[in-house]
Amino acid sequence: MKLSFYGSAYQPVGLYVRKKVFMSNKRVMLIANKWWEADPLCWVLFHDKARPSVFSDYKTRNYPTQRVPNQPTEPRPRDPVAIPRFTFKCMEATVEVWCLEELMNPAENSSSAAEKARVLPAAIAYGTSPDLVIAFGTAGSRQGLQINGCVVVGRRVYIHDAYKAEVDRTGMWTPPKEDMVIESDLPVGVIQGISSESKHSAEARFLPPPIAPANPLLLMAGNGFISIGHVNCTNYDEYAWSPQRAIESFNDNASGLGEIGSVESTHGLIRLISEAPFLYISGIVDPVGLFNIQVTPRVYAQNTVASHNAAIALAWLLPDLIAVLSE
Question: Which of 281, 290, 287, 242 has the alpha carbon at shortest distance from 265?
Fold first, then answer.
């Protein structure tokens, strides 16, 4: 696969333009959804007992991160400057760690799909076209499974708009592709190239979540896994019905094209905003329909452990992924 080369690139941030100059190597973007998912990711990537030894040359850009509280919509506050939390080197690549929520205007709901879609291009424009984009976050599993604490890795997504029948689209995102399986430009051989040693190194570091943990805790990576996205939900009360409707849409429109790997809100959005080779990593917190039973009672611990395990998986898979991309 041909190496890409960094030259001068311009980063749009609201009305501002900042010039960035990059060295010649591959560009990998790790994009976490919420700040409380990004924090465990950062902890793992810095911890020398949690990650492979090949990571080096850490450069902090916006870390530790100072959270900006929600602000009134009028007058509208300025957009945050689009910079990663930090970067580091992994073999042939410069890896950037991003938090999508931290790019959003503080006047907007942090779950707004429309706002995520608006601000993500600024992160992508921070450098030349990424060689790999990895969406990272917590997720549910399909009903009937007990895999809390496990990690699912895949490359295909399916998006369903929870409010697609609404005539008034104010504040909503209209996916350019929906109710269909969306492929990734990432070659299928990349996932097939994950070594058993990397997989076992990750699993040995997984922690059990407090509610209904899987036994054993597994890293499950496969080209057959499809992440189901339900978008335009801005209230966690909607999780009582929206994920199930997305699953029903998948069963109606894409049955037999793959199996449900995870169910969440943002992996698919990230996939559609960037046409770069794409992978998702989901830390499982609950089966669909049990959010208020298995997440809400221990929201910090359940989400933090799942994010930690997903970060462990990402850290140990990253050298394998970059090695295959560099061939």
Answer: 242
The pLDDT value given to residue 157: 99
Tens of pLDDT, residue by residue over 207-254, are 999 999 999 999 999 999 999 999 999 998 999 899 999 999 999 999
Closest CA to 36 of 65, 12, 61: 65
pTM for the full predicted model: 0.91
3-state SS of 64-120 is CCCCCCCCCCCCCCCCCCCCCCEEEEECCEEEEEEEHHHHCCCCCCCCCHHHHHHHH
Q: How confident is the model at residue 287, as a pLDDT?
A: 98
Confidence category of residue 327, pLDDT binned at 50, 70, 90: confident
Q: Which of the four pLDDT bands, split at 50, 70 and 90, describes residue 71?
A: confident
Say how many residues make up the chain.
327
CB of 139 closer than 8 Å to CB of 264 = yes
Angle at 79 between CA 168 and CA 5, to 5 degrees: 105
Q: Does the domain spanning 8-13+20-67+80-325 belong to CATH 2.60.120.200?
A: no
